[in-house]
Write a structure and sequence with these properties.
α1 packs across α5, α5 packs across α9 and α7 packs across α9. The chain contains ten helices and 17 strands. It is globular, with a radius of gyration of 21 Å. A hairpin with a 4-residue loop joins β10 and β11. Strands 1-2-12-3-13-16-14-15 form an eight-stranded mixed sheet, sandwiched between helices. Strands 5-4-9-6-7-8 form a six-stranded antiparallel sheet, with no helix packed on it. It has a three-stranded antiparallel sheet with strand order 10-11-17. The protein starts with a helix and ends with a helix. With 349 residues, it is α+β, with helices and mostly antiparallel strands. The protein has two domains: 240 residues, Aminopeptidase, CATH 3.40.630; 88 residues, Peptidase M42, domain 2 (Elongation Factor Tu (Ef-tu), domain 3, Beta Barrel). The longest helix has 17 residues.
Length: 349
C-alpha cells in the first residue's frame, strides 16, 4: 500500500479529541502488521512495540490521532443546533461547511448564519462568532432530538483531494500525516536491523492538551522520545521565516524542547544519506507531544520531526507526499544508527 492509500485510510475514520476510541481500528491493525505487540492504555493511546536486537534501551515515536471538531451545545425549539469547538478550530472557516453529527445515528447538516444582505453594516465588518452560527439539518426539534443529544461530536464532511505536483489535501492531516510517517518508518525497519526497542504511539487528545503523550511517556518511560507532527508550510502572505517549504524534506526542530545530541544525530543522518531537510528554530514550546515527553519523570531526551503543512486546522490542509516518504526514511535510518552507547551518552553534557 502506498502513502496516498495509507493517508486516505487514516483520514476516513473521524477521531475528534476525546472520541478517538470509536474509530481507530485501522491504526491498531496497521500497527499489528509490523509490531510484536500492540495494546491500548487507559486513556486510549494505541501503543505498538517492535523489539530490537538488544532490547536494553527504548526509543518512542509519537503522532497524535485526534483531530479538531465541534460539539452539540443546544438544540433550539425550531431544530437548529448550536455548537462549540473542540481544539483550535478557526471560526472563520465554519460558515457553509458540511458537517456530520455523530448522535445515535449519523445526521448530515450544514453550518449557516445570517447572510450579508440582511446583516447590519457593523456586522459585515466583523468575523462571525461561533455563537451566531447554527447547524441546519432540515428537520424539526422533535425529530432531531430522537437522534441527537447535547454533547454529541460533530465532524466536517470532507473527502481527500490529490492536487498537482504530489500535493495531497484533506482535513485531519494534522496529524494523520504523522501516523502515516510512523507506519512507513515501521515498514522501513522491517528491512534493517536496529538495536533499540521501538515503541510507536498513536496519541489521543493532543489538540486539547497533549494528554495522550503525558500518560504514554510515563507508562513507557523511553530513553528517547521523538514527536512526529506538522508545521506551517509555505503559502502566500506569510513570512518565510515562519514557514517551511512543501516538498523540501522533513523539518528538524531545535531549541530548548530539543535535546542537542538528538538534533545533531538526525541532521548527521540526513547529510550522510544526502536527504534534504529543513530547520525550524523553536525558542520555547514546540506545541507538540514533545513538550509533554521532555518533562516526564526525570526527563526524556526529545526531538521533533515535522511535515510542512499548509492551511493548518482547516478542512483543506495540504502536504507533499514526498515529505512523508522522506521523513519516514530519515527516522528509520536514525533509529538504526542508535546504539546503547549513544543512548547512555545522552546524559553527558
Amino acid at each position: 500500500m502506498d502513502i496516498k492509500e495509507t493517508l486516505a485510510n487514516l483520514i476516513e475514520p473521524t477521531m475528534v479529541s476525546g472520541n478517538e476510541f470509536q474509530n481507530n481500528d485501522y491504526i491498531k491493525e496497521a500497527f499489528l502488521n509490523y509490531c510484536d505487540n500492540v495494546k491500548y492504555d487507559k486513556l486510549g493511546n494505541i501503543i505498538g512495540l517492535k523489539r530490537g536486537l538488544s532490547s536494553k534501551h527504548k526509543v518512542m515515536l509519537t503522532a497524535h490521532m485526534d483531530e479538531i471538531g465541534l460539539m452539540v451545545k443546544n438544540i433550539d425549539d425550531k431544530g437548529f443546533i448550536q455548537f462549540t469547538s473542540i481544539g483550535g478550530v478557526d471560526q472563520r472557516i465554519l460558515p457553509a461547511q458540511e458537517v456530520i453529527i455523530h448522535g445515535s445515528k449519523k445526521i448530515w447538516g450544514i453550518i449557516g448564519n445570517k447572510p450579508p444582505h440582511i446583516q447590519e453594516q457593523k456586522e459585515r465588518k466583523k468575523t462571525i462568532k461561533v455563537d451566531d452560527m447554527f447547524i441546519d439539518t432540515g428537520n424539526n426539534a422533535r425529530e432531531i432530538k430522537k437522534y441527537i443529544s447535547i454533547g454529541d461530536f460533530i465532524t466536517f464532511k470532507r473527502k481527500p483531494v490529490e492536487l498537482l505536483n504530489g500535493r495531497f489535501s484533506s482535513n485531519a492531516l494534522d496529524d494523520r500525516a504523522g501516523i502515516a510517517v510512523m507506519l512507513s518508518t515501521l515498514k522501513f525497519l522491517t528491512k534493517i536491523n536496529h538495536d533499540l526497542d521501538v515503541y510507536v504511539v498513536a496519541t489521543v487528545q493532543e489538540e486539547v492538551g497533549l494528554r495522550g503523550a503525558i500518560v504514554s511517556s510515563y507508562g513507557i518511560s523511553p530513553d528517547i522520545g521523538i514527536a512526529i507532527d506538522v508545521c506551517h508550510g509555505d503559502m502566500p502572505n506569510t513570512p518565510e521565516y515562519e514557514t517551511q517549504k512543501l516538498g523540501s524534506g522533513p523539518v528538524l526542530s531545535l531549541g530548548p524542547n530539543i535535546h542537542p545530541k538528538l538534533f545533531e544525530r538526525l541532521k548527521q543522518i540526513a547529510e550522510e544519506y544526502k536527504m534534504p531537510y529543513q530547520l525550524n528554530p523553536e525558542p520555547a514550546s514546540t506545541g507538540t507531544d514533545a513538550w509533554a515527553i521532555q518533562i516526564t519523570k526525570e526527563g526524556i531526551p526529545t526531538a521533533v520531526v515535522s511535515i510542512p503543512l499548509r492551511y493548518m486546522h482547516t478542512t483543506v490542509e495540504t502536504i507533499s507526499l514526498d515529505d512523508v516518504k522522506m521523513s519516514s526514511r530519515l527516522l528509520a535510518l536514525f533509529i538504526a544508527s542508535l546504539s546503547n552507547g549513544f543512548v547512555e551518552g545522552l546524559t553527558c553534557f
